[in-house]
Specification:
The chain contains 10 helices and 15 strands. With about 325 residues, the chain is of the alpha/beta class. It folds into 2 domains: about 140 residues, Quinone Oxidoreductase, Chain A, domain 1 (Alpha-Beta Complex); about 140 residues, Rossmann fold.
Length: about 325
């Protein structure tokens, strides 16, 4: 038997509770994992509270991230005793996820935890930090270099933004951080930002073609913000887009693309192949200062506490990451 958060639904609506389940209830997969830690992402919050159409079938165990130890495997890439990390792949939406003491997953979805990280640290990074690393890799692989000028990070105090600022600074880039929280300027400078700008400068509709300012950008906001970034990106610069906090719309023109050769690089963390996943985690292991990871911070809770914490997350009452010790 093992403990898990279970979301179910019937004619009366959605319910969520911590339940005791038999291991025979686990879904199909070729790797069985004793889960050590999971974490709460915004998507998990939507799933648990029912405030967004995240869950695609019921009953569902939420949790899009997990770290744990392989207990059984028929996959050639993994053996009992391996410590593995899972981010995305629709887990917690269409396949049982990490907010449980056990999980059964496809080995193709897993990577081995890079040396130097503890399980807690891996979940403090979570999908947010892994997405940030994918974005940095996208810019670097496109050819954006530190000598070309400032790189902008939007949503800079969030999980993606905070790690992106730290990774870019470590890679030698001059980082401008956009935030709506003026009080967080010192925090962002500790992470490595040199310039702090008010997100309001980017949020309103702007001209479709503006003065060149950014060598590159990592944007988790979308909508007018992304349109303004594209309009002000330098010749042959690039923008990595990974989110839609402001909106999914994008009212822009072709001018930045055909007159300046600007590249818009879409970054998907959910179905990203193993090669880029491993490269992103390698960057995190190499370049993310563990002291800065502690600064980005977070709280650790037990499995039963995750239901209320999910509601607090959606209500905007949480700062930093939430790490879930599923065994307490």
């Amino acid at each position: 038997m093992f403990s898990a958060i279970v979301i179910d639904k019937n004619d009366a609506g959605q319910s969520v509770s911590v339940q005791q389940l038999d291991e025979s209830a686990l879904p199909e997969g070729d790797v069985t994992i004793d889960v050590a830690y999971s974490t709460l992402n915004y998507k998990d919050g939507l799933a648990i509270t029912g405030r967004g159409p995240v869950v695609r079938k019921f009953p569902m165990v939420p949790g899009i991230d997990l770290v744990g130890t392989v207990s059984a495997s028929s996959n050639a890439d993994f053996a009992a005793g391996d410590t593995v990390v899972l981010n995305g792949w629709g887990v917690g939406e269409g396949h049982w996820g990490g907010l449980a003491q056990k999980a059964c997953l496809k080995g193709d979805w897993l990577i081995k935890l890079p040396s130097g990280f503890t399980g807690q640290q891996a979940m403090a990074i979570g999908t947010a930090g892994y997405t940030a690393a994918l974005c940095v890799d996208a810019l670097v692989n496109h050819g954006v270099t530190p000598d070309q000028g400032e790189v902008l990070v939007t949503g800079a105090t969030g999980g993606v933004g905070s790690v992106a600022v730290a990774l870019l600074a470590k890679a030698g880039f001059t980082v401008a951080a956009a935030t709506g929280k003026a009080s967080e300027g010192d925090y962002l400078k500790q992470l490595g930002a040199t310039t702090i700008i008010d997100r309001a400068e980017l949020a309103a509709p702007g001209k479709p073609f503006q003065r060149e300012r950014w060598a590159g950008a990592i944007d988790s906001v979308g909508s007018n913000t992304l349109a303004n970034i594209l309009a002000a990106t330098k010749y042959r610069g690039a923008v990595a887009a990974c989110g839609l906090a402001q909106g999914s719309d994008l009212a822009t023109t072709v001018m930045p693309f055909i007159l300046r050769g600007v590249a818009l690089l879409g970054v998907d963390s959910v179905n990203c192949p193993r090669g880029p996943r491993m490269a992103a985690w390698d960057r995190l292991a190499r370049d993310l200062d563990k002291d800065l990871l502690a600064l980005i911070g977070g709280s650790e809770i037990g499995l039963a506490d995750a239901i209320q914490a999910a509601a607090d997350l959606i209500d905007g009452k949480v700062r930093g990451r939430i790490i879930v010790d599923v065994n307490r």
